Amino acid sequence: MAIESPLALITGAAGRLGTVAVRGFLDAGYRVVGVDREARSGGDAPILAMDATDETSVAGVFEGIVIDHGTPSVLIHTVGMWAMAPLAETSLKDWRTMMEVNLTSTFLLFREAARRMADQGGTLIALASRQGSVQGAAQQAAYSASKAGVVRLVEALAAEYADAGLRAHAVAPSMILFGGEAGEAKGVSAEDLVEHFLHLCSPSGASLNGATIHAFG
Fold first, then answer.
1. What is the mean pLDDT of the chain?
2. What is the pLDDT of residues 43-100, one digit of tens each?
3. 41-73 residues labelled b (16+ CB within 10 A) or e (exposed)
4. Catalytic residues
5. Which of 28, 121, 132, 191 has the most CB within a 10 Å radius?
6. The pLDDT of residue 185
7. What is the pLDDT of residue 3?
8. Residues 6+ apart with CB under 8 A from 158
9. What gap in Å lies between CA 193 and CA 195, rounded to an integer?
10. Structural domains in the chain plus CATH codes
């Protein structure tokens, strides 16, 4: 009997990083299901519609994926946003939006993954940042705080589910480079970032449970 390839669930799959991640995991032999704000068909992998900040949407899509494709072995959560503003000019609405998109979405995806994947184990990866993992940046209070929360959420989940074989990691890039950046932009290429994801999902990455990988270029 043929052994089925492991399944990777990639959020933000229609975005710039998500597109590179889908291709990288397909090339590495994974089956891939993507999710994004709108469903898309005809690409390299099916992309289902999901609101990553909505509890009902996340649970419903995850349930459908398990029924139609099986339980994922990997979750790559690329959904996020960045913005900057002086602290005194940061509205409560802007603060809450940043927390919802960066931190709450990670909590919802990781919680649903833990509920579904704990019995078989697997790897969960979220995106942090230099501002969240090393030092907050001026005029980026909301962003820095949201990404710092992602790091601590990853560490807490990794500690709680280590005995179940469910690993969690944060990858913290500085600037993600997609090609065509003006001047001599410094950072890490999207392709190299996906190589970090693949390593963390491999057997050789198992000892890094709860790690934050600084990918500053």
1. 94
2. 889 999 999 999 999 999 999 999 999 999 999 999 999 999 999 999 999 999 999 9
3. eeeebbbbebebbeeeebbebbeebbeeeebbb
4. 143
5. 132
6. 77
7. 65
8. 167, 168, 169, 209, 210
9. 5
10. 7-215 (3.40.50.720)
Q: Cα dist. 148→77, 86, 188 in Å?
A: 16, 18, 20
C-alpha span between 75 and 116 (Å, rounded): 11
User: In one letter, which amino acid is 151?
Assistant: V
